[in-house]
Design brief:
The complex is a heterodimer of chains A (about 300) and B (about 170). Chain A has ten helices and no strands. In chain A, helix 7 runs antiparallel to helix 8. Chain B is an all-alpha fold and about 170 residues long. Chain B folds into two domains: about 80 residues, Rna Polymerase Sigma Factor, Chain: A; about 70 residues, Arc Repressor Mutant, subunit A (Orthogonal Bundle). Chain B is globular, with a radius of gyration of 17 Å. Chains A and B meet through helix 1, helix 3 and helix 4 of A and helix 2, helix 3, helix 5, helix 6 and helix 8 of B.
């Protein structure tokens, strides 16, 4: 019983000393702290004085400046070395590899796109970069306005004709290509109708284009007989466009299969004398014996 | 702290400047001479750098973590010293030029006496005194370093100071 009481007293004193010491540690004056414990000053004062002496003595142990500075340098150098040599975790390695692969794929894709656009000028349908050519044309068209858009549309139609000419030399023209050409002519016609007035240069370009197209279609008909219907439809669209442009008569190719041997097809055809030629009088560049004036071609195959 | 863990030199420098004096005082309170204190302080800080990545807060303050390393290093150094039973080392450290030589001598004498007095305490009480008054840790921090309850630390502190009191009086 007495022992327990003694222990409790001992624990209480330990707690009280710790409390008072914490106040001294916080910077409060020793006398002030003792003043907070008037009933315990007798036993507390010598203990706090002891801790003060010990604390001050130990705190006075100062290292040399040189040691402190050199250890700091070694401490920081060790940290640098550690972070430079830090092993890369597998997750980090995978992440790095993925990032590198992404960058490479991105750069590769960018390169392919750039190459596609650069080399697309001479592409024909079926080439890997033909899509880029069409995209480029679409962009050109979107950026153009007013009369300039007519010129762009004429250029696109010329391009389609050139592509078909290239494919034709390989006997590789499909109905789909002719449909594209029809669409270009239809769009061109719509442009003319919208613009209401076109200049002479445009008219001359359209005339030249129409004649080249006509000759090309005649040649095509002789090379690929299966395209007769598509050729006739294209010719009609072409004639309509030429009429809308006020070009006048353009020699057309009828889809009749009588075109026969086609020994010397179109390219040698001489252009018609001028835009003012009446629909009836035709300068005929084609080998076909049946030259019908443009506005109402007989489409029957 | 996180910046220091990432290797940020400025953060590490601040950390060093904050803990160096206390760690050195703690080592100095326990070890026989300044050279040993310097050696152990160096080992402590290099150990801190080696293990700083593994430190996580989770209710355990960084200071307590540092002093747990310090305590382990000091204890193992003392054990090594005991097995070697070396002779008294020479004091060849460079003295602070700004301090008066007479004061230096008295200070060294005082520190030596305090070391001697604390050396007579039981190990647990001695560690509490060194951490509380050498390193300047609070009771709570001391308890965390020593893995004891705060109450236990308070009791050990009280007992240790009661013993040291008679010695201080006699001086």
């Amino acid at each position: 019983m007495i022992g327990r009481l003694f222990h409790r007293d001992h624990d209480d004193r330990a707690a009280l000393l710790a409390e008072a010491q914490a106040l001294v540690d916080d910077g409060l004056d020793l006398d002030f702290v003792l003043g907070l414990y008037p009933d315990d000053t007798e036993w507390l004062a010598p203990l706090l004085e002891t801790t003060t002496v010990i604390g001050e003595t130990l705190a006075a142990a100062e290292p040399s400046y040189y040691f402190e500075a050199s250890l700091k340098a070694r401490f920081l150098a060790a940290a640098r070395e550690k972070h430079q040599l830090a092993p890369v975790s597998p997750v980090e390695r995978v992440r790095t590899a993925f990032a590198a692969a992404t960058v490479m794929v991105g750069a590769g894709a960018l390169g392919v796109v750039a190459l596609g656009f650069v080399t697309a000028g001479s592409a024909v349908p079926g080439d890997w970069n033909y899509t880029f050519k069409l995209a480029n044309e679409r962009m050109q068209y979107s950026l153009s306005r007013g009369n300039d858009r007519v010129n762009v549309q004429i250029s696109h139609t010329e391009t389609r004709v050139q592509e078909i000419a290239q494919l034709s030399s390989r006997g590789d023209v499909s109905a789909a290509e002719l449909e594209k050409l029809q669409r270009e002519y239809a769009d061109l016609k719509a442009q003319f109708e919208r613009a209401q007035q076109i200049d002479e240069a445009q008219r001359a370009r359209v005339k030249s284009l129409a004649e080249t197209s006509t000759a090309l279609l005649a040649d095509l008909r002789s090379r690929q007989a299966g395209l007769d219907t598509a050729v006739a439809t294209t010719q009609r669209t072409l004639d309509d466009t030429a009429a809308a442009a006020g070009v006048g008569a353009v020699t057309t190719v009828t889809p009749i299969a009588t075109a026969a041997p086609a020994a010397s097809p179109s390219p040698t055809a001489s252009p018609s004398p001028g835009p003012s030629t009446s629909p009836g009088a035709s300068g005929t560049p084609t080998p076909a014996p049946t030259h019908s004036p443009s506005p109402s071609p007989t489409a029957a195959p | 702290m996180e910046a220091a863990q990432r290797g940020n030199q400025a953060a590490l420098a601040r950390l060093y400047e904050h803990y160096f004096p206390r760690v050195y005082r703690y080592a100095s309170a326990r070890l026989a001479n300044n050279e040993d204190a310097e050696d152990v302080t160096e080992e402590i800080f290099l150990r801190v750098i080696d293990n700083i990545d593994g430190f996580s807060f989770r209710g355990f303050p960084f200071g307590a973590w540092v002093f747990r390393i310090a305590r382990n290093e000091v204890v193992s150094h003392v054990r090594r010293q005991k097995t070697r039973s070396t002779t008294a080392p020479l004091h060849d450290s460079i003295a602070d030029q700004t301090r008066d030589h007479v004061t230096e001598l008295e200070l060294k004498l005082d520190i030596a006496l305090v070391r001697e007095a604390t050396g007579r305490l039981p190990e647990a009480q001695r560690q509490v005194v060194e951490l509380r008054f050498g390193a300047g840790l609070s009771v709570a921090e001391t308890a965390q370093v020593l893995k004891k309850s705060e109450n236990n630390v308070k009791v050990l502190q009280h007992k240790a100071i009661a013993r040291l009191q008679s010695w201080v009086r006699s001086q």
